[in-house]
Amino acid sequence: xxxxxxxxxxxxxxxxxxxxxxxxxxxxxxxxxxxxxxxxxxxxxxxxxxxxxxxxxxxxxxxxxxxxxxxxxxxxxxxxxxxxxxxxxxxxxxxxxxxxxxxxxxxxxxxxxxxxxxxxxxxxxxxxxxxxxxxxxxxxxxxxxxxxxxxxxxxxxxxxxxxxxxxxxxxxxxxxxxxxxxxxxxxxxxxxxxxxxxxxxxxxxxxxxxxxxxxxxxxxxxxxxxxxxxxxxxxxxxxxxxxxxxxxxxxxxxxxxxxxxxxxxxxxxxxxxxxx
Amino acid sequence: xxxxxxxxxxxxxxxxxxxxxxxxxxxxxxxxxxxxxxxxxxxxxxxxxxxxxxxxxxxxxxxxxxxxxxxxxxxxxxxxxxxxxxxxxxxxxxxxxxxxxxxxxxxxxxxxxxxxxxxxxxxxxxxxxxxxxxxxxxxxxxxxxxxxxxxxxxxxxxxxxxxxxxxxxxxxxxxxxxxxxxxxxxxxxxxxxxxxxxxxxxxxxxxxxxxxxxxxxxxxxxxxxxxxxxxxxxxxxxxxxxxxxxxxxxxxxxxxxxxxxxxxxxxxxxxxxxxxx
Lengths: 276, 277
Known about the structure:
Chain A: Residues 35-272 form the ABC transmembrane type-2 domain. The complex is a heterodimer. Chain A has helices at 15-32, 34-54, 66-96, 99-104, 110-140, 148-173, 179-196, 209-215, 219-231, 247-268; strands spanning 58-59, 64-65.
């Protein structure tokens, strides 16, 4: 009797498995690039230390200092740096270095590349949030909330905010042809939005209304507002534009940006800089 | 069945024809060298076949599929070594090769591939610390890790020193010996002569000649030049029967500085692209 050998297995590795493998490699590359870590990782904490030491004063009847309001909002600025900036510049760098073109010539699906990027951004952003909180607690006496409800808010603001910003970073990467251009574009957008979103200037009500109206179209204001609701007592909501934390609007705006970001990515993503 | 079949391939950009109608076949297990000056359309042609670029017109079948629409299973059968790249700098050689092995259904052993390209001594080194030639050998390692049926090599030895090129040629020779089909683009005529079963010359976006390295452009039948030195000084005669001439000359005794030369591949090549510029 003859036995027939089974056909050689030719199953391609699954997208999720490849995505997680990409994530490991992306993380190793991210944390081994010292300049990159210093710029996207340490800069927000450095700014928090400087600005928090400049702005003095206590909000009457609350015991909350101007530094604490700044620090709570800047946790958001930190994760935007490690998601929006880091993703946008990272994708452009992958295109410029030929990494994307090399991947395009292998059987890896595009989705696995992005899963890898999202894993890297999620881990870096979580580490960034921890770093920002450690600085805020040790330097400015910010207190961690004890309520589970606050941490739930922290979790969803973090997830929606990071994801929306990462997607917008990818979308914006389509317009930059070099890492230098990307760094300039990303930082211009990021710094501009921080100013008009009441991150550096607190409370946000001190800003001209038209500025905040413009900022309200973008995620930065809502992410920082969400984090202020987590780390500041309820009476501080009176210093927001609407006089409340508006958590429903925060969820709505960030969710909408996630959807819009996905659509923009699908429309604008390019593997290479060359004309196809 | 042919590995690559191309008919009437055209690629046009706004106001510029990069590839102007190419017919080309590559058999399974064959090594084909695509020669041509910069801007002749070599890279455009290869990138269309690799699925990196679309085409304006014409037919292209690579391993039985249309490269413009083929999917992951098709890519798993290709090995692509692009022109210079600058990625994965902070990973080590072993990390990089292992990682890429994971993309394929039936990869080679990463350690064996590193050995094959001669990087075992650098296995633990960061990719950014490799020399240009070592980096290129890593590119080749990543190109062959998936056990490809067809390998594209785009100017693989640019910037190599002579010893590294010889080692590289041996590596490609062993791949070809295993039956891998190879499409090689190069500037170096000696490289094409050493590696290729067949040579195709492309100039101005069209194929101007095709043949084995020995017969390209009528090289085998061309007149040979016999040179020697005798009492009257250096002599040179062009003839189609050099062996007979040497036999007649050597009846008078030893000949000093005797050489017989056919036009080199380079002479033929320069003639071909000169006519078609």
